[in-house]
Every structure is written in structure tokens, then in C-alpha cells.
Amino acid sequence: MKHGFELLNDPFLNKGTAFTTEEREKYGLVGLLPPCVQTIDQQADQAYENYLTKADNEAKRHYLMRLFSENRTLFYNLFSKHLKEFMPVVYDPTIAPDIEYYSERYVDSQYACFLSADHPEDVETSLQNAADGRDIDLIVVSDAEAILGIGDWGTNGVEISVGKLMVYTAAAGIDPRRVLPVILDAGTNRQELLDNDLYLGEHHRRIDDEKYYEFVDRFVACAERLFPNLYLHFEDFGRSHATVLLDKYKDTYPVFNDDVEGTGIVTLAGILGGLNITGEKLTDQTYLCFGAGTAGCGIANRVLQEFVDQGMSREEARGRFYLVDRQGLLFDDMDDLTPEQRPFARKRSEFEEGTDFGSLLAVVRAIHPTIMVGTSTVHGAFTEDVIREMAAHCTRPIIFPLSNPTKLAEATAANLLAWTDGRALVATGVPSDDVTINGITYRIGQANNALIYPGLGLGVLASKARLLTDQMISLAAHSLGGIVDTTQPGAAVLPPVSRITEFSERIATGVAQEALRQGLNREPVSDVQAAVRTLKWTPTYRTLDA
Ligand SMILES: NC(=O)c1ccc[n+]([C@@H]2O[C@H](COP(=O)([O-])OP(=O)(O)OC[C@H]3O[C@@H](n4cnc5c(N)ncnc54)[C@H](O)[C@@H]3O)[C@@H](O)[C@H]2O)c1
Ligand SMILES: O=C(O)C[C@H](O)C(=O)O
Ligand SMILES: [Mn+2]
């Protein structure tokens, strides 16, 4: 057992002023702490008061990160008491500037694992060093080529791995000792980082694909070998790698790509939530994706699969999907489509000659979408003209501007509701305030993968699933139904973040049951609900091992 400063400096074991008199005597802490012994609730109250004195969300985040570095139990205790308030501070959108200025603001490695493609021979040692003897069940790994919508941030992107894991613990009770944030430094193409002496990553451009895939392969194989129960979460990889990597590993290991799959699940859940409100059928909808990249195509595929699951042929269902990217509406005669876009590309012969598809407005005018999802990173792209045009052809347009952080969102909830006189069913990527129009208060769902991935991960871990299958993913999307009271005027399409711990458990149980039904559990699990509950870690102090 650690003693003295070594114990105080271990955030997994540290209790700060809550070390009891006996513990202080036993573990060499006498004289190292102020005399008063506090309870964790007193510590949390005090920390919260301190937090409230901080001037803005960035300062608040820095304060919380310090607490996280020093005492994880207290950090999560406090987080659990202020979940809704802390989510946008700890996570998106406030995490974005902390990624941009990571190197300048660096104070602590936060127990993350830093892997460099320049030293592939160090992968195993680095993972072992970072795990420091802990059994690791969950890794969030990023190569930071496409952080949120803010682009390539190289090693600075480690913050997203750390941040996503914080949400796993806060929402689903994943034991913080059993997780590992990992950053793969494969270079960066952001010139301002390469020119910046303070930048803490490798100072070269991204490596070529051959070396890149070799490096990722080495990491995956090594992590899987060192941590046999690992569930591996990929985050914010670039458009040309994200789906390739997912497809490469998903039939061998339990891997998850948050931007492709997590976003697909939460968006489908939001669409199903919207249709619960209107009573309309999914298979009657026309779908427009604006920004057909990693998330855009991931969502389109998930929603398409739901059309198929609801009885429509894949071919007919595809006919309802329109993808718009930089080129405008995507056609099959274009030679710059990505492999993910190609199956959705339309034929020019479907339309009258001379139809204009160059702008979003023109596409909306031509196809009359009933669902429009934005994952383009183009701030304000859902203009009043576009929305009024869409709303002229359907009663309750489903409109999800999902680009993050706030400064990149395609529209605000307030504008979407104002321009449609309250008819739009809206969800946004980051939290939105309620909107009141004509006396009705509209609650805005947050279609952020954070609503889903913690519960999904808990379900995979509780069932000891050896793979994450399409059926488990579909189940997760369906498990958010029935939580919101859709008879209330202004009801949200998704349940509120304030209830995330409750519905994460529900997602986990459903997903774990599905894994068992498919016979994917590596070990027998007799009671799924009990397995989920047992796995959950609670933020209270434990007795230290002798
Ligand atoms: N809410 C969520 O849970 C969630 C999840 C994942 C991604 N996102 C957001 O979605 C956005 C995209 O992320 P990604 O990982 O898919 O990135 P990506 O780079 O893979 O995709 C973005 C796509 O938008 C296209 N685009 C850029 N400018 C455009 C324009 N002017 N018109 C039309 N298309 C344009 C790009 O060509 C690309 O195909 C980001 O802002 C990200 O934060 C949100
Ligand atoms: O990180 C988020 O807030 C959601 C998503 O994974 C994104 O990349 O934007
Ligand atoms: Mn992401």
C-alpha cells in the first residue's frame, strides 16, 4: 500500500481531507493534511462553492480538471451531483478550446497514454506503463484528425479521450481505475501546430497510410493482448480512416466508433422520438443528410437500416435518402465520392434536366425532405430560407443541426422553432435552452452520442460480449423510446441529460440481453440486470487495502 505523499498524489486512492485519523496514522499522512477530517459530501459542497466563483466555463473546467487530477472519487462525486450543469463544462462544448490550447495550458498528463507513430516499438511498454498494473476494460483512443468539427489537433486531442471517459463514468458508472485514454500521434497537418514551439506532439505532417495502418494495427493488437476484456472505443478519426478502421476490426474485437455508430444510434433515437410525437411512420419520411462525412454517413446508414428493419427493401429505402456535401447533392457520376457516400449517390436521370442542386436551398426545393440532419461543420447553413422551404412541404419537419461545438452548429433551436412557428422537431449536438413560442415551451433534445455510448459500453462490458453487433446497436437506439411523455406540448425528441444515469442503465441492460441472446458472452452471465448493477462504480471512498 502506498504511503505519505505517494498516496496523496495517487488520484485513484487520494481522499484528501477525508482521510480519517486512523488512516492518517496508518499510512504516514500525519502532518500532511489540515487537521479537520471532512466527509466526501462536505468536500463536494466546498468544491462546488469554489467552482461557482470561477468567472466562466473555461475557468470552471480548469478547476474541475485539477480536482480530477488530484482526487477522482471526489471529482465524480461532485459530477454526479451536478450532472446536467457539468456536462457542457467538462465535455462539449467547453472541451473544444482546451483541445486547441492543450499544449500552451499543459499541466498534467491525466494518466493518459501517449503513443507516437515515430516510436512504434514503444507501444507495448507505453500501454503497460500507463496501465500501471491496473486491469483495463475500456480504452477511448483518438488520432485527433477530426476532433468534433474543429479538425486536426494532433496530440492535443488527448483531451477528447479523457473527456469521453469522464462521461462514461459519470453516466454509466464505469470504474475510473479500469479505463485508459489513449492518443495516437501520427503527426498533424495543422500548420499552426507545426510552427508552434510549444506544441507537445510530433512536429511533422501526418504519416502515409501504409505506415499509419501498421501503427494502428500494432496498437490494437497489443492492447487486445494486454487487456483481454477490452472494449475499444474509437473517437474523432479522420473521414478517410474512421470507417475503414471500424470495418477492419469489428468482426474480430468488441470495437465501437462513436462518430459513426454512436451518432447513428442517438440520431435514430431522436428521429424515432420525433415520430412518436407526430404519430408518423419512418418509412414515409424523406431524409436529407447535410455534410456526408463520418457522422453523416454513419447516421444515414443507421437510419437506412431502420427503414429496412421496418419492412422496406434496401433499394426502395435508399430512394428516400439524399446526401449533400461540398459538391451539392451527391450523384453517381461524381468521381470524388467517398466509399461511404457512393451507395447513396443519386442518378441525374431521376430529376428533370436543368434542376439546380448546387445549394442546400435548391436541394430542399427539389426533394422536399421531412428529416434534415446537419453534420457539415458549416455554421448557420440551415438558413431561414432553407427552413421555410422545408417546412412549406411537411407539417412537422424533423431538423437536427448536430455539428459541434456551438460555433459550428448549422442553426440554433430558437431560430428553427421561430422560422417554423413551433412546428419543427429539433435536437442539437450541444445542450440548448428551452424555447417558448406562442405560449408553448419547447424542450430541446440533445442528439449527442454521449447520451448513448456510456450505456452501450456498460452493456458490452456487463455481458462480456466478444463483439458489438448491429443488433446490439439497434437495440440501443430503441431503448430511449417511451421515456419522454410525448403527450406534453413541446416535448423533446430525446430524454433529458439529467436522467442519463437512469437511461444508461436501461440501454446497458437491453444491450447486454441482446449480446446474450446472440451468444456473444465470453463467460456465463446468469442475471443481466445484476451484472450491470455489479459493474457500476459509485463515487464514494473505499477502505484502503492494508
Ligand atoms: N452530435 C453528435 O453526437 C455528433 C457526433 C459526431 C459528429 N458530430 C459533428 O458533426 C460534424 C462532422 O463531423 P465528422 O466527424 O462527420 O466530420 P467529417 O469531416 O467526416 O464530415 C464533415 C463533412 O461535411 C462536409 N462539408 C464541409 N463543408 C461543407 C459544405 N460547405 N457543404 C456541405 N458539406 C460540407 C465535408 O466535406 C465532410 O464530408 C462535426 O461538427 C462534429 O462535431 C456531432
Ligand atoms: O464529442 C461530441 O460532442 C460529439 C461527437 O463525438 C463529435 O465529434 O462532435
Ligand atoms: Mn466525436
UniProtKB/TrEMBL annotation:
Cofactor section: Mg(2+); Mn(2+); NAD(+)
Cofactor binding notes: Divalent metal cations. Prefers magnesium or manganese.
Any Gene Ontology CC annotation: cytosol
Any one GO MF annotation of this record: oxidoreductase activity, acting on the CH-OH group of donors, NAD or NADP as acceptor
EC numbers, comma separated: 4.1.1.101
Signal peptide positions (record): none
Active site: Y91 (proton donor), K164 (proton donor)
Binding site for a divalent metal cation: E235, D236, D259
Domain Malic enzyme N-terminal: residue ranges: 68-250
Family from the record: Belongs to the malic enzymes family.
The protein's name: Malolactic enzyme
Organism: Lancefieldella rimae (strain ATCC 49626 / DSM 7090 / CCUG 31168 / NBRC 15546 / VPI D140H-11A) (Atopobium rimae)
Lineage: Bacteria, Bacillati, Actinomycetota, Coriobacteriia, Coriobacteriales
